[in-house]
Amino acid sequence: MRSGALAPLFTEYIPAEPDEGVLYISMQFETAVHLCACGCKAKVVTPFGPDDWILTFDGTVTLRPSVGNGQQRCRSHYHIRRNNIDWLPKMSAAATAAASARDRAAHTVAAAAPHAVASASWARRLWRRLRRSAEG
Ligand SMILES: [Zn+2]
């Protein structure tokens, strides 16, 4: 059955067979799992991260960006906003291709981002300091 809302459940481990209508949230594994809100029982995994999904908790749960199940037969597409499912038009094959292209682009940009370089030089500085204190 198509659900209008998901009940958030903070948990350490995500069960192998999640219940319908529950959004399992594991901070330990930095991911959320729910069964597709259309009722097709496809398991939808939404890892958290700057290039993946952002979870907002204010007593209710909001997940951004939208959940597009373009890889599933149902092609359902929706926002999870304040525990509620806001339905969007079904994903077309073209939109699915565009979304995965955008994902790839986002990951490529992240890999080349300046903060990666900055943290490398930070690590070098730390290493130098450690070496110095070991010698002294
Ligand atoms: Zn579905």
Describe this structure in words.
The chain is α+β, with helices and mostly antiparallel strands and 136 residues long. It has one domain. It is 30% helix and 30% strand. The protein is built from 2 helices and 8 strands; from the N terminus they run ββββββββαα. The chain has helices at 93-111, 114-135; strands at residues 7-10, 22-26, 31-35, 43-47, 54-57, 61-68, 77-81, 84-88. It has a 4-stranded mixed sheet, with no helix packed on it. The longest helix has 22 residues, at 114-135. The protein is elongated. The model has no long low-confidence stretch (mean pLDDT 84). The protein binds zinc ion. Residues 36, 38, 40, 42, 69, 72, 74, 76 line the site of zinc ion.
Jot down its keywords.
136 residues, 4-stranded mixed sheet, 4-stranded antiparallel sheet, 8 strands, binds zinc ion
List the helices and strands and how they pair.
Blueprint: E1 7-10, E2 22-26, E3 31-35, E4 43-47, E5 54-57, E6 61-68, E7 77-81, E8 84-88, H1 93-111, H2 114-135
Bound molecules: zinc ion.
Q: Would you list the SSEs in sequence order as H and E? A: EEEEEEEEHH
Q: How many structurally independent domains?
A: 1
Low-confidence stretches: none
Structural class: alpha+beta
